Amino acid sequence: MLYLAKLLIIGSIMKFSASWYTQNKLFKHAATFLTFASLSFAAIAAPLDMSKIQFIGPLAEDMQLKPFQTPHGTAIINNLLPRLQASSESLSIFGKKQSWQPFDKINALTLGGLQALKFNIETTRFTQGTLTLKGIQQGQLFINGKLQKGDKNSYKLALSNTTHTVIIVAQQVANWYDVALDFAPKADIDKITLSTSQSKRLSAKQLFDAPIINQLSLAPNAKQYVTTTRTYNDVTQNQANTVTVLKDADDHTLYRFEAGQPSNIIWSPDNQFLVYLLNGELKQLNRKNLSIKTLAADLEGASGFTFYNDSSLLFSWSKSPESTDSLTKHYKGLQDRWSYARTTSQIYIFDTKSGLTKALSQGPLTHNLEDLNSSRGKILMSRSVVAMQASTHPETELVELDLKSSKLLSLGKFKTFDLAKYANKDIYVVAGPDFKNGTGRALPKTMLANNYDGQLYLLTNNGENVKALSKQFDPAIGQLEVLENGDALVKVTERDTQPLYLFDLSKQRFKKLSTGLDIVEKFSYSHDRNTEVLLSGTNASAPQQLKRLNISKNKTQLVWDSQPSAYANTRIPTLEEFNFKNKNGVEITGRVYIPSNLDKTKKYPALVYYYGGTSPVTRGFTGRYPFNLWAENGYVVYVVQPTGATGFGQKFSAQHVNAWGDYTADDIITGTRAFLKKYDFVDNKKVGNLGASYGGFMTMLLATKTDIFSASIAHAGISNLTSYWGEGWWGYLYSGEASKNSFPWNNSELYSQHSPVFHADKVTTPLLLLHGDSDTNVPVGESLTMYTALKLLNKDVELIEYKGADHQIFARDKRFNWWDTMLAYFDKKLKDEPQWWDSMYSND
Prior knowledge:
This protein is an alpha+beta fold. It is built from 17 helices and 52 strands. An 8-stranded mixed β-sheet has the order 43-46-48-47-49-50-51-52, sandwiched between helices. Strands 1, 4, 5, 7, 8, 10 and 12 form a 7-stranded antiparallel β-sheet that branches. Strands 14-15-16-17 form a 4-stranded antiparallel β-sheet, with no helix packed on it. Strand 44 and strand 45 (about 585-590) form a beta hairpin. Helix 12 (about 720-725) crosses helix 13 and helix 16 (about 810-830) packs across helix 17 (about 835-840). It holds the Pfam family Peptidase_S9.
């Protein structure tokens, strides 16, 4: 009678229809159902739909000792949990198949073994409250795979705006009819919805923890390949889990490498051996019998191993000066601010048969190995002309060493230089447009070139002659590899993509390869006539894939896809292209991420992201700034590519020089207005903007120029061009392009009037400053300076420092906090939801 009374009372309050009860097979099941749904009064206004709970059990009903009754209970449950999370329909336990079923199917007072409950919690905002389990004497509550700590089965929850997967492992239950789940919200606005749908929103943990291939290498004959896969999880936290495997052409695993992550994986030209570094030792794996031999040890500072011939290896070996206990440091030059500036590196050759190593270069200057040509007995090296050069464009000398005669030939000294590779008897060079007295320039004489815009050249006649190969090719040249016939395989920046092109040396033309990827991340190629390429990459709306590309057919074959395992049933935002023409009639490209559940009859807040420096914001699926995640948190996200970026042609990138936001700010403001006009479901009073590094500078600068934005975030931004130029490790070098020929003494107006802090009194937009306190690129003082100015001006400004972080936030715990901080700030300012931000920072 007690359950019947409770059923009638709660049913009356919730105004459930009578038909709801009749859907249950047994009246006692309905009673159990609503008992399970007993809620605190504050939550009755938004009752939980408890039919959205799944049950599985009994698991190992003959279990004599429950996990909590053993000294290894935690490990037992932790090992079971991933299977419970992954199984959608059934699970095999000691040969017995158990299926997930609705909770109301429970028809016994007690059950043996273990049981588990599973459901999703959907939130539409940051939500707080207390979840209480009743009737479970021994159990664990997991949310998104993380064990929740509670007091007497009560758990205080703080849930971000996403889909949360809940698993309850019940070890001891006296009477399943007494089991109940209460949620007491902290405030009336805190509401949750239960769901058993397989569809879920994209999460931060997916983006960071999902498997990523971060190393790959294809055998010269394409018959085998090696990949290293990296994952993260709650157990190892900031420590990555890596697995390196050797596979055959049919993707069968042949060998799993020892513990640790092998690096510098290379293949012998005769296809017999695979050589790699592991824990300071150089090891050799026999590809036929999989036996391992240690070739050398004590290799601290050694890197860049590559086969010169079947039995010899070239590599770089660095040496740092002995540390001293001196109380002072006498700077020898501008580069001496770098912690590694006095470390020198030389080129060595190692004989795998005898173990003997021979030095090939020497002196106070570091020598970098560019390429080798064993048939001609020569290697290419680059080196600085002078150590510690006091120049915004230090000179690099390209030299060729004849290994037989030990003669060194200088091929030229260049103010702009990126890399060099042999092309039969000639040499490919990647450098800026100003290479060799401006050979690669495709600009009016009145414009200064942006030498971050990589161009391809061919040096002939021992460097005497040069030919520009990409003068009319808009993409910026990046990575370069040379095939056996002299053709070049190049990875380029083309607008906001990074595709692969083949440069045909004989026809002097570029051909785009069909990879099916927006961003090619890594690639490795075979050395036979029918060249194959193994490559990894992503699309803007699809996670990482591994593919094989046949160059002659220009077709790819999918090898591996992270989507099924890491992003199954995950809702991904819709992507739309959005371009406009700026005031000069130049097309400015962009893209818009639209939340998957967007209702166009409502108004939504928006975020505008940009970089503004010399690179475009590429179309990677994830990264430091997760556009897809922001969209799934209820923001329409507009990514704009303003004037000055590479990949759009030399004239477009050259406008970055000596501009410091001039064209960029106009493009961002104009683009935002055009975006708001087209997307009328965006609330034009709830638009945020953010950027990092140069983008952080742009955020600060925009705050002094416009009030179009309602809240702004600058990460590692530049507030004072002069202090950045003088204090950042690379500030003067970057300024060599961004402020070419301009210095504080000859162009003080550029350095002052383009510095946001000099216009801090014009700021009206709330601003959050984020910075790593160990940032060597843009020192934290840049944010401190702006913070000081805005505080003295009584402006709305916040400053968050990340301890021990450099220019980027890499560590998993800091990354999650960083992502949360940005969303919490925008939720506060653009959604009028301060709870998340207050929960993170109100007690600091």
